[in-house]
């Protein structure tokens, strides 16, 4: 959008050199500001998080700056199941969406909110399908990572389960 | 090829003189005053020189050549009485021609409650096939330093065609990863009821059950006071002595081979690995040798088998490993077997009784039997009994072995191997099972059969006990066995109709096995994962979902027979169920109208389409609690996002 605004301004005001410099300055300033904002937004989600969105469910998530994520989830009993994939932050709407490494999409996009110190993060289903849940910034315990196994879909045999040690 | 145990000829059903099938009261006093109902089985295959007679109270004076069946009375007097094991004696009959007449005489005595002919079972001929290490051995880099593990496809099948032309990678018991969690535990004792185990075999000795008081005691003295003299590694029920006679010339090593499959010592730098053979720290399961046979063509009578079962119960075994039985189809219901072999049956019930449980993990001992090698559509008995596990066999291509029994009474499959004639030239042995063998016969050998499949399941059961102990978990026996029977791979997916061969003879298409060799191929890793806990199934609010039950019922869950789905009112409310969940095409069909979580119970048949017990032969009743979580949105990947 910023680029588009700049292009329109550029076309409107012509090639006057002062104006060009002025607009370049404005463009660079805005670009710098926006990039900074982007980095800030990105930084907020980047890191390791823990959530217990409901009873008997425990989730650890790691969002990396390269837009990849890892999810360690234990629903009920047994070990943590390990998922991975990529995510996209929509800065304008403050939503995050993603795709698992098997090509399936997340169930929905989530509106992301943070507390003042960015120590807590809230995922709220963007489709209004239900209540969100809270993450707390927390390192993923090594036993969760080391002891996890690859996901078992309800539609999939255990044959795909691999030991990751 | 080894053929484990066969009855000498076909067996007829119990004659009219047997007790009514409907009357299975072990303490029935009606029998006492009715001479006609005291002889409780058929004499067709009986030893001709003895009768097994149960007396009420003291043995009458004047009877000669008589001794108790049990060297010592069963330790648990109450359970022994409960199952009618008290009062049994062996009465010698001098003239074989007068066996039935003598039974009639004894039946007329008021002190006699019941009489059983001692039906014999024999081990068919067969020897192990010699082993020479393959080219894989020198280069193998496995989880343990036991070099011959390279040739044990049954434990780790990497798909090398040296094992079979159509070998399937993963056609094994998936124990490699399981070993990273546990290798077994010395407190789990497996009673190998078979030919003798070479207790001092270098690859077995460290995992033998050792009765230290007898080992360190005086020869000829019952040092531990258990009634059995010199029972250091078990007992020889053939000759009634503590000496395990593995080195007699005619002994062919069946029991030693089986012992190695269960618990050959892992990580000792020599030989093979065993399923529950430890991790190289003297921590494997323990083998107790209950010798029922001696030498080729040996026979085991009813009294010997019964005493072995009682000995196992009274001396610490939590698993009976029994690769013997009657030919598949000899009996076609639990009742028929029970009537023909009452003493063994009762001794088995004694072993299984919760009051005799020797495990700190489960509330009852476990009995594992081979399904039999007659290519019959029935499991062999006693394995076919509803409360025993009957094990069928598959080969390195994941296809049931051509000889294995299948159908009613078969519970689960395991590697039993097969000779693939013409496929592998000189290496065809490599499709069979490699294990320990008596040192005087080569130390290691190949054998195939359900006899070999069976100890894989015994070993996996021992691994499960060990891992549950590590995690501090306890189960009922039914819960434990249900987990074991549902920790499987779908071997049916590999059946492609190719014919099976036995000794170069074409058998039928392998399609006949589809759905009939049990719940699937046993998988040690999945079993340990079930012990850790089973993940919940996720479903979406407002949608009718068909959920695979693989995590709960194994890789072949879609082929199982389900009996019922039970939902409590609380669960119905929590999930907003307006229609009852049901099983369709092997999947759980459920429609939750609100988000929540709850548990429901699903019952299924563990092997085949009908439950066993009573007047039927059938599968083990499996009951699993399935946890459901209903959410507004669920990704198809199963991930929470």
Task: Give the helix/strand layout.
The complex is a heterodimer of chains A (165) and B (641).
Chain A: H1 2-13, H2 17-45, E1 47-51, E2 57-63, E3 68-75, E4 81-90, E5 95-100, E6 110-114, E7 120-125, E8 133-137, H3 142-147
Antiparallel strand pairs in A: 1-2, 1-8, 2-3, 3-4, 4-5, 5-6, 6-7, 7-8
Chain B: E1 5-6, E2 46-55, E3 66-68, H1 77-82, E4 88-92, H2 99-107, E5 112-119, E6 121-123, E7 129-130, H3 136-139, H4 175-178, E8 189-194, H5 212-215, E9 234-236, H6 254-263, E10 286-291, E11 299-300, H7 302-314, E12 319-322, H8 334-340, H9 342-352, E13 366-370, E14 389-394, E15 412-415, E16 433-436, E17 444-447, H10 450-471, H11 477-485, E18 488-489, E19 499-502, E20 505-509, E21 521-522, H12 524-532, E22 537-540, E23 544-548, H13 550-553, E24 561-566, H14 569-575, E25 582-584, E26 587-591, E27 596-606, E28 620-631
Parallel strand pairs in B: 8-10, 8-12, 9-10, 12-13, 13-14, 14-15, 22-28
Antiparallel strand pairs in B: 1-6, 2-4, 2-5, 3-4, 6-11, 7-17, 16-17, 18-21, 19-20, 23-26, 24-27, 25-26, 27-28
Total count of strands of chain B: 28
The averaged pLDDT of chain B comes out at 88
Enumerate how many helices of chain B there are, as a single number.
Answer: 14
Query: Strand tally of chain A, please?
Result: 8
Helix and strand composition category of chain A: alpha+beta
The major sheet of chain A is characterized as: 8 strands, antiparallel, barrel
Estimate percent helicity of chain A. 25-40%
Spatial order of the strands forming the largest sheet of chain B: 9-10-8-12-13-14-15
What's the end-to-end separation of chain A, in Å?
47 Å
Please describe the biggest sheet of chain B, giving its number of strands, its sense, and whether it closes into a barrel: 7 strands, parallel
Overall geometry of chain B? globular
């Amino acid at each position: 959008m910023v680029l588009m605004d700049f292009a329109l301004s550029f076309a409107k005001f012509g090639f006057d050199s002062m104006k060009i410099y002025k607009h370049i300055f404005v463009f660079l300033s805005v670009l710098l500001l926006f990039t900074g904002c982007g980095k800030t937004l990105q930084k907020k989600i980047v890191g390791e998080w823990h959530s217990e969105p409901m009873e008997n469910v425990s989730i650890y998530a790691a969002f990396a700056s390269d837009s990849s994520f890892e999810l360690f989830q234990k629903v009920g009993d047994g070990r943590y199941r390990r998922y991975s994939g990529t995510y996209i932050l929509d800065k304008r709407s403050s939503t995050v969406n993603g795709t698992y490494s098997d090509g399936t999409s997340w169930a929905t996009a989530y509106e992301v909110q943070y507390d003042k110190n960015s120590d807590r993060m809230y995922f709220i289903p963007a489709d209004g399908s239900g209540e969100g849940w809270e993450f707390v910034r927390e390192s993923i315990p090594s036993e969760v990572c080391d002891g996890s196994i690859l996901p078992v879909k309800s539609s999939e045999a255990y044959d795909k389960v691999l030991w990751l040690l | 090829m080894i053929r484990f145990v066969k009855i000498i000829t076909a067996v007829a059903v119990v004659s009219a003189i047997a007790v009514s099938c409907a009357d299975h009261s072990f303490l029935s006093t009606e029998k006492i005053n009715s001479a006609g109902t005291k002889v409780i089985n058929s004499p067709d295959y009986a030893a001709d020189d003895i009768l097994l007679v149960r007396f009420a109270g003291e043995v009458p004076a004047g009877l000669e050549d008589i001794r108790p069946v049990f060297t010592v009375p069963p330790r648990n007097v109450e359970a022994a009485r409960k199952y009618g094991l008290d009062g049994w004696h062996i009465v010698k009959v001098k003239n074989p021609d007068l066996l039935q007449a003598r039974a009639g005489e004894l039946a007329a005595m008021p002190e006699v409650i019941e009489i059983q002919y001692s039906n014999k079972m024999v081990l068919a001929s067969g020897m192990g096939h010699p082993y020479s290490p393959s080219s894989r051995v020198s280069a193998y880099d496995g989880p343990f330093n036991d070099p011959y593990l390279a040739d044990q496809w049954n434990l780790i099948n990497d798909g090398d065609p040296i094992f079979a032309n159509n070998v399937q990678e993963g056609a094994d018991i998936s124990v490699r990863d399981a070993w990273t969690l546990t290798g077994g535990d010395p407190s789990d004792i497996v009673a190998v009821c078979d030919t003798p185990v070479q207790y001092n075999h270098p690859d077995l000795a460290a995992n033998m059950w050792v009765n230290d008081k007898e080992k360190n005691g005086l020869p000829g003295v019952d040092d531990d006071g258990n009634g059995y003299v010199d029972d250091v590694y078990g007992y020889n029920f053939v000759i009634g002595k503590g000496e395990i006679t593995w080195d007699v010339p005619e002994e062919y090593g069946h029991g030693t081979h089986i012992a190695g499959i269960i618990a050959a010592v892992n990580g000792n730098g020599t030989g093979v690995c065993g399923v529950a053979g430890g991790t190289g720290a003297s921590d494997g399961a323990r083998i107790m040798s209950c010798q029922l046979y001696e030498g080729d063509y040996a026979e085991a009578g009813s009294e010997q088998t019964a005493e072995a079962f009682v000995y196992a119960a009274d001396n610490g075994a939590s698993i009976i490993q029994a690769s013997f039985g009657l030919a598949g189809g000899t009996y076609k219901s639990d009742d028929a077997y029970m009537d023909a072999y009452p003493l063994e049956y009762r001794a088995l019930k004694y072993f299984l009784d919760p009051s005799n449980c020797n495990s700190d993990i489960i509330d009852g001992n476990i009995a594992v039997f081979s399904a039999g090698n007659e290519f019959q559509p029935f499991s062999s008995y006693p394995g076919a009994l509803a409360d025993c596990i009957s094990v069928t066999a598959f080969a390195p291509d994941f296809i049931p072995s051509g000889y294995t029994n299948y159908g009613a009474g078969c519970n689960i499959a395991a590697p039993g191997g097969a000779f693939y004639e013409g496929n592998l030239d000189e290496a065809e042995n490599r499709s069979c099972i490699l294990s320990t063998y008596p040192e005087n016969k080569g130390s290691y050998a190949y054998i195939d059969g359900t006899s070999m499949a069976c100890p894989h399941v015994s070993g996996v059961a021992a691994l499960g006990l060990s891992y549950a102990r590590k995690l501090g978990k306890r189960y009922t026996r039914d819960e434990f066995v249900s987990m074991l029977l549902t920790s499987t791979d779908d071997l049916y997916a590999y059946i492609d109709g190719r014919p099976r061969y036995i000794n170069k003879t074409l058998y039928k298409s392998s399609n006949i096995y589809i759905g009939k060799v049990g719940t699937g191929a046993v998988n040690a890793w999945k079993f340990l994962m079930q012990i850790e806990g089973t993940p919940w199934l996720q479903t979406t609010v407002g949608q009718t979902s068909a959920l695979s039950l693989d995590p709960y019922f194994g890789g072949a869950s879609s082929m199982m027979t389900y009996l019922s789905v039970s939902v409590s009112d609380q669960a119905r409310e929590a999930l907003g169920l307006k229609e009852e969940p049901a099983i369709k095409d092997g999947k759980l069909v459920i429609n939750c109208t609100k988000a929540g979580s709850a548990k429901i119970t699903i019952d299924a048949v563990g092997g085949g389409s009908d439950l066993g017990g009573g007047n039927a032969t059938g599968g083990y009743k499996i009951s699993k609690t399935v946890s459901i979580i209903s959410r507004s949105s669920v990704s198809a990947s199963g991930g929470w996002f």
